[in-house]
Specification:
Length: about 210
């Protein structure tokens, strides 16, 4: 059966996103251009502009896809960890979030998008809409934890989700900070405080081992 126009456009969009992702990982954010993305994807610049209004538009989509995929993974961890204790599950979540916050290609992309949003009001609206989506999925993650472990969160899940996104993205932007505790411990402390577990003993053998 011949491929219809919508399917062709979907495939082109995916190719462009895949090419941009590969270019960011291999070369970094600063070095990629619409021309290089199109060349890597085997698509024309006309095809690019049929799917995205600018390079920044593509990069926002790429960042959103990355975050949605990562949070989806975290939610699967919660659902599949039914037999684990809440501490074990929080340690796994904290370790994963710390790991992706340390990935240089995504931290640099996050910085670039944040700065551009500060300079361009129209782009800021697009960027803020993407962040709202990210807040929602982080909220879903918190709701999964609350339901799975019968927790009493200290704030509404959406507010915790916004705070978690801000903490995680801030870690990605700042990189290593002198005299700061390891990212895993910071995230674990946040999870404990926001899910009502802050009165439990701080630290854990698992986290301590992971940061030695």
């Amino acid at each position: 059966m011949p491929t219809n126009r919508k399917e062709t456009q979907r495939q082109t969009r995916e190719k462009l996103l895949e090419a941009a992702h590969a270019s960011i990982v291999q070369e970094g954010v600063a070095s990629i251009s619409i021309r290089s993305i199109c060349a890597a994807a085997g698509r024309t610049q006309g095809a690019f502009y049929s799917n995205f209004s600018s390079k920044d538009d593509l990069l926002v989509d790429l960042m959103e896809i990355h975050i949605l995929e990562e949070v989806s993974l975290l939610r699967r961890i919660v659902h599949e960890a039914a037999s684990d204790t809440i501490e074990e599950t929080l340690c796994i979540l904290a370790e994963r979030l710390a790991y992706i916050a340390a990935e240089p290609e995504w931290s640099l992309l996050s910085i670039e998008l944040q700065l551009h949003a500060r300079r361009d009001e129209a782009f800021a609206k697009r960027h803020n809409a993407t962040k709202a989506t990210c807040y929602r999925v982080f909220c879903d993650l918190i709701e999964d934890l609350v339901e799975s472990y019968d927790l009493l969160p200290t704030l509404p899940p959406l507010q915790i989700g916004i705070g978690l996104y801000a903490l995680w993205s801030g870690m990605a932007v700042q990189g290593d900070v002198a005299q700061a505790m390891p990212r895993e411990q910071m995230l674990l402390a946040f999870f404990r405080a926001m899910t009502g577990l802050h009165t439990m003993p701080h630290g854990s053998d698992r986290i301590a081992e992971s940061v030695k």
